[in-house]
Here is the input.
Amino acid sequence: MAVRRLAPDAVQPKSFAFTPQTEAWLVEQVRKYPVGRQASAVIPLLWRVQKDCGNWLPQKAIEAVAERLAMPYIRVFEVATFYTMFNLEPVGKFYIQMCGTTPCQLRGSDAVKKVLERRIGAPQHVTDDGLFSWLEVECLGACCNAPMVQINDDYYEDLTEENFDKLLDDLAAGREVRTGSQQGRTSSEPTDNVQTLQDPGLYDGSRVGAWKKRFEEEAIRKAAEEKAKEDEAKAEAASAAKEAAVEPKPGKPDSGRATESPVADAPAQRAAAGERPVDPGARVTASEEGSRKTVDAQAVAEEEEVASRLATLPKDASAEDKANAVGERPAGLDAPRGGTADDLKKILGIGPANEKKLNGLGIWHFDQIAAWERPQIRWVGTYLAFPGRIDRENWVEQARALADGNTPS
Ligand code: FES
Here is the structure.
């Protein structure tokens, strides 16, 4: 594999900013991962940014991804330079990846390569009209229809020198082209003298629905079984409660206990009956679960409100204008108290870049962050361009623990 380096400075843009659509998409992606694991979103985010940048990744874009995910630049550069799905230099409008692995080579990829060299030139060269560039890659997993190329997101298979030449002519002229086999195959059925697999249902997509339906039916059956079990458990609990509510009759072995408090004696009664004691922690956990869901719902509602307010602002609104539209700027200090700032990087989620930005706002100490309330959290989250993350990473709680001299949990 060739050494993969960033494009030379001469072609690197001086700045990069996420589009509003990517901003909104990013919030959803990061939410898929547990708090503190947002780095897991690095590949999808790089991929999305590459699409936004004309199918390649400028250095500033890679750095912006690193800052957004609170990752050191080097870790994101490692990912971008390792995977050949990321282009580190500008590519043509039609970026062609030609498979040169054995099955494709045996089926004629050399002829395809000759067309590319004749029409475009050397690998990675972009034609003067900006339309085409190409690269030889390893197997793209469509060997059954070899030889093949991938152009942007689509596969073109069963290529010959003639049909590939025509395909490039059509693309250059803006004519509609057919993806997949260029010899009329629907998938990878035999090209002639078809003796088997003649059931049209194999090719018309109808079996896709059948497959999906089977899973849906299975899910419905399982849900019904769960519901029946739940109903049965509820009925048993109700009948047990009813029995317990009936006053014991005189003459029965426990009649002497009728005047005693059933609540106070409940554990003893359960123990006498050989039942497991009720675990008070179980009730707390359920209530905690409920309140967590409420907090999550509030967070989602607030993020939606922030997004709708931001949508009313002009596209070129500054970070400060955006933040002012959704919250209240936290009070800052001119300089750290006593000339020494706290190490804000001890808060999980704050890296060197964000610490610098916070210092720029006059935030130098843990107790300043610990004092933030909703308006300040919204303001800072929007200013730093990662709405919701301060909550997800519990910056305020972490700051409170650190201000009290503890280690955040
Ligand atoms: S060898 Fe070319 S797609 Fe597999």
About this structure: Residues 99, 101, 103-104, 139-143, 146, 148 surround FE2/S2 (inorganic) cluster (CB under 6 Å).
